Amino acid sequence: MIKPVPYLSHCPDADGVVRYSEAEHAIWAELQARQSAAIAAHACDEFRHGLDRLQLPADRIPQLAEVSARLRRETGWEVAAVPALIPFSEFFALLAARRFPAATFIRRREHLDYLQEPDIFHELYGHAPLLTDPDFAAFTEGYGRMGLAASKEDRVFLARLYWFTVEFGLLRRPGGGLAIYGGGILSSPGETAWAMSPAPLLKPFELIEVLRTPYRIDLLQPQYFVLDRLRDLQALTRVDLLAAIAEARRLGLHPPLFPPKPLAA
Known about the structure:
By secondary structure, this protein is of the alpha/beta class. It has 12 helices and 6 strands. The strands form 2 sheets. It has a 4-stranded mixed sheet with strand order 4-3-6-5. A two-stranded parallel ribbon has the order 1-2.
């Protein structure tokens, strides 16, 4: 079996600019066109407003510096270049400093529909627009601060909170129906269609339930948690999260709604 070629972030040149190839720019353009059509009727209002504020280019991969300049004007955030997946400690420290991590590589064409590693399209298109929203930006900063103060064992529970909100969160629309705010859905055509279909289980957002729910990163999510309002996230930074984690640990994890991950050959 041929071993997959790993993704590596690009290094900027002496001028601080990442020089992407025409093929890489073409993948960004195709991803953005396809995903913009997929989420047109499903993205939450705060995300759509964020896209308007960021004005991400349609035909090329933006430089992190230009996205950071627009984010700073809106909420004081910026985007920080990272290799790819980073340790919890580094991730929490960046968020607490209002710096959102983003790898500078973009997926290859064979991974157009899904990529486990978070690439630059996932981070800049899926996540950066909501960082223009003051409530969401405040929650993300507060989450980073909570993570810095948490133990190694508690950070596993915090990862579940992030997964079912920032990555795969849904909102209940005031007039009925669902809207997407999770970046893992907003940057994936396949996950968008799945999340909006009758197939997955939908549960109202309850903190203890979220902390007790296992997940896998390499599957379409079998269930999502639904918030009433995006600003409700900010209230989570004011609760006794350590007490909630202790209660979730006492109750134990729910049985997973997915099969065990196959062992590597």
